Amino acid sequence: RQEEAPDTWALEDTLTPEESKVSVRLEDRTVHVGAWRYQVQGQDDHSIPVVLLDTNLPENSDWDRSLSDRLYGGDQYYRLCQEIVLGIGGVRMLRALGYENLERFHMNEGHASFLTLEVLHECAKENSRSMPTHEDVEMVRRRCIFTTHTPVPAGHDRFPISLVERVLEYRETLHMREVFCCEGEVNMTFVGFNLSHFINGVAKKHGAVSQSMFPNYQIDWITNGVHATTWAAEPVEKVFDRYINGWRTNNSALRYALNIPEEELWTAHQQCKSILLEHVKRETGVTLAQDVLTIGYARRATAYKRPALLFQDRDRLREIVRRSQGIQVIYSGKAHPADQEGKKLIQRIVDAGRELGEQVRVVYLSNYNMDLARIMVSGSDVWLNTPRPPLEASGTSGMKAALNGVPSLSVPDGWWLEGCIEGRTGWAIDGERGHIGDLSDEETAEALYRKLEEQVLPLYYSHRGEYVEMMRHCIALNGSFFTTERMMREYVLKAYFL
To answer: 3-state DSSP helix/strand/coil percent for the chain, to nearest 5?
Structure first.
């Protein structure tokens, strides 16, 4: 079962402290905010600063010092105070660090939406007004962008208006209907929506789902992407370096992966797989076979992602394996500390592995992080994803797998609706076409078993050349497109320069 504990680390080993300090008002007290800087180095000499806020300062009370301790912790009061520090304190810190002429503010979800209030009051002050007006609201809208990331209602923070009136220093702004849609509460998503000129979901489908959730707003979409040089495994990188000139700074060049010799791509994949299986042996003591189809599944353990769907009908799974040359499955991923159902799903997977024994080898790797993710997305033979539509906003693990030539076997939701070319980049678990999202868990599991039995296993074991050709298409079609380079280009053209 999952158990979690605080992860203590020395900030100064990774971050550089900033001398600047700012403050925010919470209720009747002043909370001081410091900052640390981390420089993200690009492929060339360009770097981007990441500024992290810190309330763990001697000037603050013990309770206020804890505001930057943990993510998604505490009650509503704690979260509201955090979001005021992040939004209002964040803008003030940027100003203190010399960023006076920022043209755009981009909010990812509503956690930072109070930044719009700080910018709104800046605009009013610049125009010698004590209170913001409609003109100030329009000025702020031209400068702000909002990206919504989840179709799950719990992902949208809401606070009682009585609490906000008590804590927020700009409480007089609450009367502005252009900013707040109150009805007894402050919805941070609506605050961001109301003060942004561009709103988007993170996949084409998610944009449409978000539009139906929020019909009073115009919602666009920009599909997520992954950073190619971060997620391409070293053996794969070496092949890219030999055959695809300039791919590190021009990810679209990965379309030339179709020219990579089959044997070299297969050898690189086998090296990645060996690294994964060696990690499994080292961490669990379980020896998995190099020549057995290895299915990978790693993401947050939560109910709507249905991580245990593969074990819905264990007798059916045993029969499929009995008639083939075998399947082995590697899982990883953490549940939110408060998500008891997610923790039970992890237990269910571990129990299924014990029951299936030697028939289907199942391992669950602990301490999931980016390093383990890199090993898993490159070393698996097939990447599995089984969300319950339409709750997968985008998903990126399958993009990382595709970058390494690993095809996906996935329910068509999120990014996979755009990335799946059936039989070319992987397979859709969709039952009868036209009924996506209408299938029960039992029907989806049967569709998964059918794809495994009729297409995935025969391709891997009996048509190796066609499997490697699929690997090349994964890279050329999906690896070259679902990148942060393409994603950022779309944000620049559709949102930042609009």
So the answer is: 45, 15, 35
**Residue 262 burial (CB count, 10 A):** 14
Start-to-end Cα distance in the chain: 49
Tokens representing 203 are: 């996949």
Name the 3-class secondary structure at 476.
helix
Q: What is the DSSP letter of 297?
A: E
pTM, entire model: 0.94
Cβ–Cβ < 8 Å for 206, 375: no
Spacing of C-alpha 350 from chain mean position:
25
- For 434, half-sphere exposure in the C-beta direction (CA atoms, 13 angstrom radius) is 1
**Stretch 180-185: mean pLDDT, rounded?**
78
Helices 262-284 and 370-379: crossing angle in degrees, nearest 10, is 130
Nearest to 415 by CA among 299, 307, 312: 299
pLDDT for residue 80 is more than 90:
yes
Residue 434's pLDDT band, with cuts at 50, 70 and 90, is very low
Amino acid at 329: V
- The number of angstroms, rounded, from the C-alpha of 50 to the middle of its chain's C-alpha atoms is 18
Residues in Cβ contact with 90 at an 8 Å cutoff, skipping those fewer than 6 apart: 51, 53, 112, 115
